[in-house]
Amino acid sequence: MIQISIISILFAGGVLAWLSEQFRPDGSRWVSLASIVACLLLLMNFNGNVSAALSGTSVAAQAQWWELVSAEWIPRFGVNLILGLDGLSYLLILLTLLLGIAGVLASWKEIHDRVGFFHFNYLWTLAGIVGVFTALDLFLFFFFWEVMLIPMLFLIAIWGHGNRIYAAIKFFIFTQASSLLMLFAIVALVYFNYQNTGVVTFDYRQLLDHGLAPTTAFWLMLGFFIAFAVKLPAVPLHTWLPDAHTQAPTAGSIILAAILLKTGAYGLIRFMLPIFPEASAAFAPVAMAIGAISILYGAKLAFAQSDMKRLVAYSSVSHMGFVLLGIFALNTLAIQGAIMQMIAHGLSTAGLFALVGMIQERIHTREMDRMGGLWIKAPRMAAIALFFAVASLGLPGLGNFIAEFTVLLGAFPTNRLATVLAAIGLIGAAVYALIMMQKVFFGKTRDQQADEPQAFADVTPRESVPLLAMALLLVALGLLPKLVFNLSAPSAETIAQAAQSVLPSSRLADTGATPALRQWP
Amino acid sequence: MVDVVVPELWPLIAYFLAVLGLVVLMLTLSHFLGQRRRDRATDEPYESGIVSVGSARLRFSIGFYLVAILFVIFDLEAIYLFAWAISFREAGMLGFIEASIFIGVLLVGLIYLWRLGALDWGGKQKSLEQRESVNANNGK
Amino acid sequence: MNAEALQALTPILTLSGVIILLMLIVAFLRNHRLTLGLTLLGIAVTVWSTLNVSPLLETDPIAVTGLLVVSRESLLFYLLFLLSAAVVSILAFHSFEQGTAIQPEDSGEKRNKGDFHTRPTFQEEFYLLLLISLLGAIVLVSASHFATLFLGLELMGLALYALIAFPAIHANRNSRSKDQALEAGFKYLVLSALATAFLLFGIALIYAQYGQLQFAAINAAAAAGQGTPVLLAIGLVLLLIGIAFKLSLAPFHFWTPDVYQGAPTPATAYVATVSKGAVIAITLKLFSDIGAFEMRAPMQVFAVLAVTSMLAGNLLALQQENIKRLLAYSSIAHIGYLIVAFLVGRQEFGREAVIYYLVAYIVTTLGAFAVVSLTADYARRANTQSSPYRISFYKGMFWRSPWLATSFTMMLLSLAGIPLTIGFIGKFYIFAAGVQAGYWALLSAVILGSAIGLYYYLRIIVMMVQRPGAVVHDDASSGEVSPGEVSPSAKLTHEGVSIAISGQMVLAVLTVALLAFGIFPQILINWIQ
Which residues touch A422 (CB under 8 Å, ≥6 apart)? Predict the structure, then answer.
């Protein structure tokens, strides 16, 4: 029931936030903060499962789903409300809610008009995302997948910057058109499953043994893959991302980059690999190549940007390439790395976007050519920014390093060329992250800025507390990666086993790494 | 089937072809043999030597149109009543009721037309618009 | 004719009685409000009698004299059309009160306040014609004989010509509205006549093949023979062309945008919903009754028409600036989607998909036109300069009248097929039906069409949420149009769009239906089954 409570609290909180605007101008901010915190408190119910998983002793004995809710919805189509929660979902929901709070705080001063409606859309997006992370019925999954889009569209279209209408429509059409393909694939999958088994169902667990012909499975898998790859985003389908991220308000960018992109990766891990293991294995070399290209191409484009927010946006493309690479390496180690990367990237990118938002709020520009020397004016902000920049470039000791390292380790036996190329991407990350630091915080103060009437204020506690919390989490992940690895292990192992059962035996070379991972310090 | 039909139809077909041929012949001959002139009177309609006067576009009262359409409507409906009259005994009471409903509907239509002024003729005949505005003015 | 058959006929008889009574009353007492009341009352009585008939049909449909068959399915359509007509008449009432029904497109010519009240408008006849057309639709959906089919179709069509050309009765002489309405009415008249000619020729060929006009008899004769006779196939294709005209499937769609634009908006709503719905319903019945789903030729023609409609409709809609024309093209595309499900009509699931999509389409389209109509009425009252039919008129509407804009957003999302709305379930049904039959090419056209369609629906939605005046601290780096820019129309209509209570209720009911059937589709599915 906890999943349902969280989702309904977010939905209801959204409506309440909209209404409360009329009574207190600040009301909707507090309401949305309160509802996200309430959801976090609800999530504490799983502390038992978490500590069991962390201790690592009873993982095998644990049921896969910590909690499972099921109810009838549309019996005509065999559609049911099935919401499940396991370690992977738990991690991602936790990430969603934590960054949700960061987003509310980041938008505290940025959003001035239609505050109520802003928070309504914000909370509904979060609710849709939590729904995506828990839905186990494909129809329901698609339902939430779409529900999170429309409020997001409004967030960009109403409170965005500059060319926001174009960005919003582009974002929506890209994701919507690809999800139509997914809908088509879902319907076809259910129908073929019905032909083979005589049961009309959208239940993910029952669809696992659909017994499709390999060719059909491959085409349907492509339908899923395109939808998820657009969200991820993988390279040829990424063009919506820089626009949407750049034009969105800070809170919108945080949700987009830190959480919304993860729904694509989640979809790959949760649905595509288990449902189409053979087809995915056959497709893996292509997907890994796409991943490697995304890493390099994203890094190259990030390097070429003069707009700070666009730079961060392109760095997301690059980092999410690691996720794609890891997932399609089809072994536990790499998938674990991909999950780690999802979380670490979520934290570090959210931090960077929040920082860009703060700078933009102060000097009304994102052009790096017009910044410089901010270290002197705002040393605390600069220090935080340096932290997130090095996190993003993968400094050992932080979560991103562990993630990227694990992905590369896992992917190497499967596809050496792609892995080597991906490793080069790490150098690219160092280049663009340091260039960003150099242009913005070091060097001389630019003349244009001297004219700014108000002095450049350093971070306030409202701004710095969530950033410091995120930084702390990144350090924790870097030093104690089992926080993530142990929680996601059951999911990752089930998926990897399913995938490996169909792989040629030569690729099984790395299975020895799996147990070792469990005992990670 | 075609073989059966053709022998019976061939005189008709021959006649049709003959007509067509004659027309073509006449047009072609006159085209080649006739002299051509362009005068002021060339395009005028030929009225047996009398010069045509005035415009062909006459305006005549819309009342004629109304009468014509009313005639068509009510006269056509009467045809159905003939059919009923012939089978009056066979149709019995049910037929009588049905015919009464039919006549009743026609009657209502007539009343509607009357109220709308469609039956007025002559001096009183006005366009619907004028009529209504007169009424509205009277009402004031 | 036994008592049971007579009782099955009560909805039709009631509606006929209501029409005659209303005609008598109008002849003696012209009162707009009274006429609307009587119309709604008449519709309510007919709905009541329809509900009374339904217990009779628990087991079997009742055949009335071989010309009509009343089944549960046709009763569902009765209800759907009756309720739609009720909505249309309420919209018409407001339109007449504001004069938009008489002068839909106001080109900013001389216009005096109260101009529309001193001149007679014969508005009462609008309701009369509406009811007559409704009667035609109801007769049409229960036809089981080509004679009844033709009768119903013509009864519906004849009244429609007058409804579409209604502004021509009275407007300033030489005004643009009058010309447009006349053009629309004439276009519809001429093209409908052409369509009818095709239809009749098709019927004649079918008759030439079998000497039968009753659907069941034709089916029996066809089943007795071997394969598909040539005359039957040609006849059906010709019939299809006639139907395609009525449904405005591309390439027979040329009348649609002009008619939609020129007609008064309530009449447009009626043409788009009831008239098309009735034709779809009877085509479904006709095809299943005479077994046309097994024949290749008509099905292939239909498949081609579906693809062209989906693509042409969506592509042409992209460039429209007039909201009525946009909705016209979108309706062409939607009927195209519907035909995909129609092709699977042989199976029970396909029928269900067709009916569900039809209900979704009617509810949504009616809602969209209701918004357009009520907004135009408001614009007339507020005397705005810019035309309320231009998309730019809706700029920033979300901030001025959030409820109206929210409901319009819902309608547009439903047209685009986004979850939470009835349109999504409809599209889902189409996917399911298409996958079942393995129509991969058609489905890819559906996907492509929907993806294109997203753009123009979204454009309106985004237009509505644009902030009219609020200036944000915008970055100077991106030298785009500043959000502080205000369109002239937004300035003029800065206050909210106010709508009469009954109009608000109509919108509320439609929006709630749209959401309820979108989130809990099982309710509607049970009714259909």
Answer: A291, A292, A295, A296, A321, A322, A325, A407, A408, A411
How many Cα atoms sit within 13 Å of C421 on the Cβ side? 28
Assessment of whether the complete model's pTM goes beyond 0.95: no
Tens digits of per-residue pLDDT, A314-345? 998 999 999 999 988 888 888 888 999 999 99
Supply the CATH number for residue B72's domain: 1.20.58.1610
pLDDT digits (tens, 9 = 90+) for A76-98: 888 888 888 888 888 899 999 98
Interchain proximity A180–C447, CB inside 8 Å: yes
How is C217-252 classified by DSSP, letter by letter? HHHHHHHHSSS--HHHHHHHHHHHHHHHHHHT-TTS
Mean pLDDT of chain C: 84
Distance of residue B16 Cα from the nearest chain C Cα, in angstroms:
25
Q: B53 CB contacts (<8 Å, ≥6 apart)?
A: none
Beta carbons of C478 and A161 less than 8 Å apart: yes
**pLDDT tens, position by position, A176-209:** 888 888 998 998 888 888 888 888 888 888 888 7
Binding partners of A (≥3 Cβ pairs within 8 A): C
CB contact under 8 A, C170 and B129: yes
Distance CA B67, CA B62 (A): 9
Chain C CB contacts of A147 under 8 Å are 419-420
Q: Say whether C24 and B105 touch across the interface (CB within 8 A).
A: no
Q: Is residue B66 part of a domain?
A: yes
What tens digit of pLDDT does each residue of C420-450 get?
889 999 999 999 888 888 888 899 999 999 9
Which residues on adjacent β-strands are paired with residue A81?
A: A71
- Distance in angstroms (rounded) separating the CA atoms of residues B101 and B103: 5
Put simply, the chain C residues between 35 and 94 with a CB less than 8 A from any chain B CB are: none
Q: Structurally, how many domains does chain B consist of?
A: 1
* DSSP characters over C173-185: TT-HHHHHHHHHH
The token pair that represents B52 in the structure block: 């045509």
Task: Report yes or no: C418 at the A interface, CB cutoff 8 Å.
Answer: yes
Whole-number pLDDT of residue C481: 38
Nearest chain B residue to C28 by CA: give it: B115
- Outline where DSSP puts E strands in C7-109: 62-64, 68-70
Residue B79 is part of which domain span?
A: 61-124
The answer to whether B140 faces chain C, any CB pair under 8 Å, is no
Interchain CB contact of A81 with C (< 8 Å): no
A278 touches chain C (CB under 8 A): no
pLDDT tens-digit map of A453-479: 456 777 788 888 888 888 999 999 888
How many C-beta atoms surround the C-beta of residue A472 within 10 A?
11
Spell out, as residue ranges, where chain C has pLDDT lower than 50.
107-118, 470-493
Q: C122 — contact with chain A (CB < 8 Å)? A: no
pLDDT in tens, C303-341: 999 999 999 999 999 988 899 999 999 999 999 999 999
pLDDT at res. C113: 45
**Domain assignment of residue B102, yes or no:** yes
Does some domain include residue B70? yes
B-interface mutation test, from C24, C127, C173, most B Cβ less than 10 A away = C24
**Which ipTM value was assigned to this complex?**
0.85
Rounded to whole angstroms, the Cα distance separating A469 from A102 reads 9
Residues in B touching C1 (Cβ below 8 Å): 94
Spatial distance between the Cα atoms of A170 and C212, rounded to a whole number of angstroms: 56
C405/C412 Cα distance (integer angstroms) = 10
Asked whether the beta carbons of residue C120 and residue B132 sit closer than 8 angstroms, the reply is yes
Q: Has residue B56 been placed in a domain?
A: no
Tokens 């060929």 sit on residue: C205
B112 touches chain C (CB under 8 A): yes
